Amino acid sequence: MWSITLKLMRKTKRMLIPAGIAILIGTAFIASTFLFGNAMGDSLARQMTAMFGGANYAATANVDGLSDKEIDKAYSVTVGDFHVDQLKAVEGVKAVRVASESAVTVSSDDDNVSGELITGASDASMLPVRISQGSQPKDANEIALPEQTAKTLGVNVGDTVTLTSRYATTETGGKTKANDVRVVGLTADPEGAYSFYGGAIVGSDNLIALMQGADDFNAVNATAVYFDFAMDGNTVAAKTLNDAQKLLPAHYELSSRQNVSDEAVKSLGGNGTNVVTIFLMCFGILAMFVAALVIANTFQVLVAQRRRTLALLRTIGAKKGQLYRSVLFEACALGLISSVLGVAFGSLIMWGMCAGNVIRQGMRLIFSWQVFVVPIIFGIIMTMLAALGSARSATSVTPLEALRPIELTDTKRAGIVRAVLGILMVVAGIAMAVFSVWRIQSTNGGQTAQANEFTMAVLIAIAGAALIFLGMVLTAVFWLPALMKGAGTLVSLAGPSAKIAHGNIQKNPRRIAATGAALLIGVTLVSTIATGAASVKQTMNNTLATRYSVDVVASGEDLTQGMADKVAGIKGVTDTVYAPAASVTLNGTDAAKPTTVLLIGVKNIDQVKHVMRVDLGDTSLSADDVLMPSYNAQTGKKLAFANGKAEFDTTRNKNGDMTRPLTLHVTQRDYRRIFDSYGAVGFVDERHFANGDLDTTTHMLLVKADTDQSGTSVNDLYDGIQSALSKSADAAVSGPIAERVTWAQMIDSMMMLMVGLIAVAVLVALIGVANTLSLSVIERTRESATLRAIGMTRGQLRASLAIEALLISLVSGIAGILLGTLFGWLGAYVVFSLYGTVVFPFEWGVNGIVLAVAAVAALLASIAPARRAVKVPPVEALAEA
């Protein structure tokens, strides 16, 4: 019997191709989802632990529960306190790097560039940046410059530069300086460890000490120590960890790179939940349901075509069980082959995206067992379940009945049980969705949710949406034919072909509902993803605007308007604000210690709105007002002001008494990352600097840029700004634009992958339309012959099938768009309300394209069945019937 089954499969392989494609696409989506999650997790892990360089462990201060005195002591640890020589001597320690940083200015001739100076390492692989040319510093007065810095200064490996500290001073009050510093290498920062500063400068030990004003390298303030421990598989010997821990200063603890990256990725994923994987996997599973409906229709067509062959097999002794197992074996073979091809196809898609840097620069293809096992098993099981109905149909008739022509049309009414079960599913799903939304709202939009609470809310929302959707599909036999009947009543006025199409749709509501449900699922998926993608994109853009409010910030006492004008003319720069600024102290907010504040003087609030990405709404700024952020940039705590007023300490006398307070009315907006050296950055009317209320201590240049529209890279933008400010001796340039652009690219790529893969589900569903029309032709052989015999032309018969396909696709498509929009809004709110205020858009463009594609594809799907219906002469068709 197995050999007969294989021969039948080879004979009808063209009929199996649509089902195979459906399975292939569904399993490809699931495999791609796992690969995307793996690649995204790996990329984020490398980005969040870029400071590790080649290290696998780090020792950092754990200040939880410590007093202020203990915290100060922990953060005052020096290089000498780490006993580096003893740490290197510990068995199992391959390399050690103590981390320390200093803000400096690099000068060559009259050009100056600000940067961040970091410690080197005995092994270059331990550095958080990569030496792209030359070597890392080993001897005194040696540095390795970022490639962009060297380009701006016009220096190469072997040249000398001058290094000036931005904070350490000499006994005479001048800034500490090192002349004739030799450039021995260039650095690149592929993981963005120092993207805020445009890269990092690696310096020799004596330069680090000099720039911090320390007597020697052992007296330099250290922030962490990184280890490269010998690994036995994926673990480090307990003795090695214990011996290293004993040598560490008080309150410093060892953490593995894996643990740090896991915690970092979990925190980005919503309090321990990998929302991206969950979000994608839900649609991967639903895509397989689309495939299941197409498979079911395909096997129904196969059984209908093979009814005489099956009858002959029953006549010569084949048992019902053998035929049943034959159909299931065919489904299993088809599922296995298609699923394996689907995994290969999904892997190829992700390989192309990673190799082409479509998602993110340097993203790698990471395989796991789930990539192979889950899609293949799921594909086989779904295929066999979809074929169960056809297997029963193959054994439901006796040999004598099977030898007679049979009508496969099912005119039975859908059962009460189906209706009740479907309605209960919809009601339960709505209740679960409402509960999940309420749960998210009760936790302040997810901001204060614990990991288990947030996870539970997400899972309940997913389960609720699934129940609603399954209930709608289950009851589609009731409401979908009713919608089509209403639409068909209007269409039938167009002529006889339209009337025939309208009648054919009403003849078999079950099969029409099954096909419409397949297309409904496909369109719902695309609409859900399109709506969710638009919502997530706008929501995350708003969130990015809040967290990275200004792209680039430059500060310096000798910054001039002319320099600001040069920056304004750089390609990619859209707006700038050049303004005076003063460092002041704010008391009585969110901490016992005074908060350092930088007040920037602007002409009007529109200047701020033009450079800030966050929406400031109808904010105004009069002479008595100050615009302040909602949170302290250093502590993360909310800034609170008594009576809505802030009192700034602008100057103090020798005794520390406040001599010139400034009290202003406070307007707060949630903007961040303006200047992390201060607890807050506020904006005031510039007249305060003219009338003596505030003394200008520095000048600020705020820059807004658009790298996408201008085609300018972030590196080129930094290079241009540094070049424009190169004549300033103390200008410091920093900004989160690199981080913001990286996140924006990842969001764009994720949405592109989701929409691209799910869009194919519509084509899969349209294969189901073609299968249904093919089956309809087989069932209506006698009817088609009768119509041809009484005068209906071939064109009219073709037109009736085309109109039938259009009615199915458009009615199902519109219903799918409405459902998909609601599901997209629900998913975006529940999953991404953690990050900010969710936007609820309607995607007119994508939904319109989906309907147009569905209509065109439906017309194309009707071609083959129509050709089959008209190619047989009426007499032969009647004889066959």
How are the secondary structure elements laid out?
Layout: H1 2-11, H2 13-48, E1 57-61, H3 68-74, H4 84-89, E2 93-99, E3 101-108, E4 111-119, E5 130-134, E6 142-146, H5 147-153, E7 160-169, E8 175-188, E9 201-203, H6 205-212, E10 224-229, E11 231-232, E12 235-236, H7 238-246, E13 252-256, H8 257-268, H9 275-305, H10 307-315, H11 320-355, H12 369-394, H13 399-403, H14 416-442, H15 451-474, H16 476-491, H17 496-507, H18 509-547, E14 552-556, H19 561-568, E15 573-586, E16 595-602, H20 605-611, E17 625-629, E18 645-649, E19 661-669, E20 680-685, H21 687-690, E21 698-705, H22 707-710, H23 714-724, E22 732-734, H24 737-779, H25 781-789, H26 794-832, H27 844-861, H28 863-871, H29 874-880
Parallel strand pairs: 4-9, 6-8, 16-20, 17-19
Antiparallel strand pairs: 1-10, 1-13, 2-10, 3-4, 3-7, 5-8, 6-9, 7-8, 11-12, 14-21, 14-22, 15-16, 15-18, 15-21, 17-20, 18-19
Helix pairs in contact: 1-11, 2-8, 2-9, 2-11, 2-12, 2-24, 5-23, 9-12, 9-18, 9-24, 11-12, 14-15, 15-26, 16-17, 16-18, 16-26, 17-26, 18-24, 18-26, 18-27, 24-26, 24-27, 24-28, 25-29, 26-27, 26-28
Structural overview:
By secondary structure, this protein is of the alpha+beta class. It folds into 3 domains: 57-264, no CATH class; 469-546 and 738-881, no CATH class; 549-735, no CATH class. 54% of the residues lie in helices and 16% in strands. A hairpin with a 2-residue loop joins strand 3 and strand 4 (111-119). The chain starts with a helix and ends with a helix.
